[in-house]
Specification:
single chain; alpha/beta; Rossmann fold; four-stranded parallel β-sheet; 15 helices; 11 strands; globular
Amino acid sequence: IKKSLAALKLIDLAILVLAENIFGEEEAGLLEELARLDVPVVIVHNKSDLSPVTSELREKVRTITGKEITEYSALQPGKHNPVLLANIKDSMPPMAIRSHGLVGDLVSPGDIVLLVTPIDIEAPEGRMILPQVQVIRDTLDNDCTAIILKENEIESFLGKTGITPRLVITDSQVFGKVSAVIPRDIPLTGFSIVLARQKGDFEEYLRGTPKISELKDSDRVLLLESCTHNVACDDIGRVKIPRWLTEFTGKKLEFDIVAGLDTFPRPVEDYALVIQCGGCMVTHRQLLNRLRDPKKHNIAITNYGMAIAYLHGIFDRAIEPFTGRKEKTGDLL
């Protein structure tokens, strides 16, 4: 039962199946939990050929949930399938069916998008990582040209070609290097920030990132990774971000990291800051539910890319393509 209830945080839609006109405390409690998690639900009464839904049950469910019951019988698919499928379609969140694009509203057909992808010890052999692949595909889907290069090739490329990209997207780990060589009038952001807008709680990240400067000695930071990749010796979540945070704040901080969708190792109230990865391996719903408790307890939340940009003094520039806010004078290190 525990695992079943935990799975509610991972789903986009629930179908509650009733039978024999039974609706008790268990069903009511389950619907209450789904409502708390903002998970839409379709209520289905099965085996209606044997026991049709009574008016009393319809009224009871309507009073408690505000929802109507969908009758169903596997023996009458032609009659019930179209209605059930229509209800599922109407109830499914749009983001579960089709996600928002990554760069479509930042570029126009024919634009050039420069993608900076370091090849370091963390880079998988023989392939690109998923966020890079997703951005390449979205760039092509929007009839733009994607140019992929490493961070040490930027100056030579721009100088030789004279090309002015419409947008530059970089791996967050080299934000500082890339920002230094990309002219200020060219929009710059990171793969993780692009994903944060598509899947995460972008406004919450914007509010939470500056809280990094308020961290104190002994504060505990939770890093959330949505996948379980092989850990490198200079891992971004386990090594680099903790190191950069410690250097930036000058404080003695404590760090916990959770991979995949595992439970938090301690009560969420113990944390002063939560840093969520881009979330390329999870759905929009899964990521939002992941952050629900920290947000409920008013814990500052940020994103890998935004945190790294802030720690390198280019936060305002990195979010400017999405917010339109110009870089503040005091934001640079």
